[in-house]
């Protein structure tokens, strides 16, 4: 998989999402993938792309490390559950 520069004016977000989901699906094939969700922007984006590509074959884990804001782990879990991503929170 080659890395390519994407110029903002040329970016078609819908097409980008489809392309990346297809790449993920191709790499995982019939298997499953494990995903670490921190609650930050990057891991949230990766989680949603993986979920779009793999559905229930994406196993998402969120670890409450004890240094997040009060109630933040529950908010992360609730947000992703609302979007159909079934994850596990480890305290």
UniProtKB/TrEMBL annotation:
A single cellular component GO annotation: cytosol
Entry GO MF terms: ATP binding; GMP synthase activity
Keywords of the record: ATP-binding, GMP biosynthesis, Ligase, Nucleotide-binding, Purine biosynthesis
Domain GMPS ATP-PPase span(s) in chain numbering: 11-91
InterPro entries, sorted: GMPS_ATP_PPase_dom (IPR025777), Rossmann-like_a/b/a_fold (IPR014729)
The protein's name: GMPS ATP-PPase domain-containing protein
Species of the source: marine sediment metagenome
């Amino acid at each position: 998989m080659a890395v390519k520069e994407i110029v903002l004016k040329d970016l078609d977000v819908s097409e980008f999402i489809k392309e990346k989901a297809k790449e993920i699906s191709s790499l995982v094939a019939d298997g499953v993938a494990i995903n670490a969700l921190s609650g930050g922007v990057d891991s949230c984006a990766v989680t949603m792309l993986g979920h779009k590509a793999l559905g229930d074959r994406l196993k998402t884990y969120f670890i409450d490390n004890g240094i997040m804001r009060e109630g933040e782990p529950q908010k992360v879990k609730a947000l992703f559950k609302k979007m159909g991503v079934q994850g596990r929170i480890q305290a």
